[in-house]
Specification:
Blueprint: E1 3-9, H1 22-29, E2 33-39, E3 52-53, E4 63-64, H2 66-76, E5 84-93, H3 96-103, E6 107-111, H4 120-125, E7 129-132, H5 142-153, E8 186-187, E9 190-191, H6 201-219, H7 221-227
Parallel strand pairs: 1-2, 1-6, 5-6, 5-7
Antiparallel strand pairs: 3-4, 8-9
This protein binds S-adenosyl-L-homocysteine.
Length: 233
Amino acid sequence: MAFRATVLTLYPEMFPGHLGYSLAGKAMERGQWSLDTLQIRDFATDKHRTVDDTPAGGGAGMVLKPDVLARAIDSASENDSRPRLLMSPRGKPLTQERVRELASGDGVIIVCGRFEGVDQRVIDARELEEVSIGDYVLSGGEPAALTVLDAIVRILPGVMGNDLSGLHESFEGGLLEHPHYTRPQEWESREIPPILTSGNHGAIDKWRREQALQLTKERRPDLLQAAHPENSR
Ligand code: SAH
């Protein structure tokens, strides 16, 4: 069964966005994954179709109403066991490991917040998994949902032209990836490292591993520590 994404949003016209292009777009055309949207506003019941209200306790901004959002979630998840994600800067930061788990399932239901966020009770009552795409604040969950789906779709079976190319990427081995080069051999007086054109595959693998390790040490020591916590003791 193909991977199925359902996105709950106040801006369905933002989808599929960039996912309609390139590898993800072609995979969608081939039916390897699908994306549908639910307009949260369609689940409002008053004549103004209100989806938000002022924060209890006061303060700036508006909060998405729990009753309206719950109806939208219930409509999307009827007889459906797909994980329900809520895009949220307070969520667990997305990792390649979680992306891989999600990609191996049937699909996802993704709720996009807006304004100040959503009423806490709907997060609790519908057991939404809060997911963050990084330590910064967006104006809405839509770009975050597109990002999560991009990361998932590119590793679905058969989506990337060359399935092997995912194997050595950043994070897959707990390291950042080694640098890449391509022709011309010399560009602006800069040479491709000779080892890469030596034809010695053993030496090339070794060089790449060393580069990856060095880069990770310099830029993301936290990744090395996560992979080998004993080194910090
Ligand atoms: N007041 C909230 C921010 C709301 S931003 C706070 O300080 O935590 C509005 C919406 O954008 C959020 O509900 C969420 O859906 C989305 N969003 C913002 N930053 C995000 C991030 N880093 N990751 C995922 N979603 C994010």
